Amino acid sequence: MVGKFERRKDTVQELTESGATHVGRIAMIIAGAVRDVTREIGDWISDGIEMREAAQRAGEDEARSSPAADGDEQAGSEAVDDEAPREPRD
Fold first, then answer.
1. SS3 state at 68
2. Quick one: which of 19, 29, 49, 50 is 20 to 30 A from 2 by CA?
3. Residue 23 and residue 17: Cα distance in Å, rounded?
């Protein structure tokens, strides 16, 4: 026959093992979530950096291909004024 003390010891032991197992699983879930969130934030920042670099390269390409960059000052002076009032047509 198992004594009162041994039954209590077994109960405490089972509860402790069960608690450790569940806490371990919860910690793994949290660690995985932190890892995934960190990865997503890093990817988001990388996307922003890539977009900024692409915009800079596009600006540099535009500056190189513009007529003013070739030394032709006249080509850029033919601007159209879209803000000028227009005569109504009858």
1. helix
2. 19
3. 10
| DSSP 8-state assignment for residue 70 | G
What predicted TM-score, i.e. pTM, was given to this entire model? 0.55
Structure tokens, 5: 């003390």
Residue 67: partners with Cβ closer than 8 Å, 6 or more residues away: 75, 76
Which tokens hold the place of 4?
């009162």
The token pair that represents 68 in the structure block:
């003013």
Contact 76, 66 (CB under 8 A): yes
Distance between CA atoms of 69 and 3, rounded to whole angstroms? Answer: 96
Torsion of CA 29, 32, 37, 43, to 10 degrees: -160
Structure tokens at 18: 């069960």
> Which two structure tokens, joined as six digits, stand for 6?
């041994």
